[in-house]
Amino acid sequence: MKRMLVGYVICAGLLLGGCASSEEDVDPSRIEYHTIHTDGEYGPTRTITDAETNAELDRTTEEVEWEDQPVPIEREPDVKATFVFTPNDAPERSLDFGIWYEEQIIGGIDPKDSRGELTADQVTLFKSIFDDQE
């Protein structure tokens, strides 16, 4: 009986260990974005494929302290960005963000999504990358 119990525990451990999520830390393979113009219209969609730039932007979004609060801003974001992740042997997934420079806020495009406060340095970084790519 004891042997069966030990065998069961080992099998259950292997099964649970094999099914556990092995979420790897993957940087975005590309970032697609468009910026708002003074007339209120968005420009063409642009793509950043530089691995270093994508990793830097991803690290910056990870440093943001996210709140489980909706985005309270009535106007459209200054930048709409989609971070596209392509993990090995897995389907592509994406995260959509809106960035408001003056309010120093980053959040989901959907107004019900959460938001995060940006530091002045983070706003400067986003501006330099997204405006420089134009």
Describe the protein.
This protein has helices at residues 2-19, 51-63, 120-132, and strands spanning 30-35, 46-48, 65-67, 79-85, 93-100, 105-107, 115-117. It has 3 helices and 7 strands, in the order αββαβββββα. A 7-stranded antiparallel sheet has the order 2-1-4-5-6-7-3, covered by helices on one side. Strand 6 and strand 7 form a beta hairpin. The longest helix has 18 residues, at 2-19. Residues 17-23 have low confidence and may be disordered. The protein is α+β, with helices and mostly antiparallel strands and 134 residues long. The protein starts with a helix and ends with a helix. The radius of gyration is 20 Å and the shape is globular. The chain has one domain. Helices cover 33% and strands 25% of the residues.
Descriptive key words:
134 residues; 3 helices; seven-stranded antiparallel sheet
Q: Roughly how many Å is the radius of gyration?
A: 20 Å
Compressed to H and E, one letter per element, the order equals HEEHEEEEEH
Report the mean per-residue pLDDT as an integer.
81
Which overall shape is indicated by the principal axes computed on the Cα atoms?
globular
* Order of strands in the sheet with most strands: 2-1-4-5-6-7-3
What's the helical proportion of residues?
A: 25-40%
Helix count from the secondary structure assignment: 3
**Would you identify the regions where 5 or more consecutive residues have pLDDT less than 50?**
17-23
> Got a strand count?
7
Give the count of structural domains: 1
Largest sheet: 7 strands, antiparallel
Strand residue percentage? 15-25%
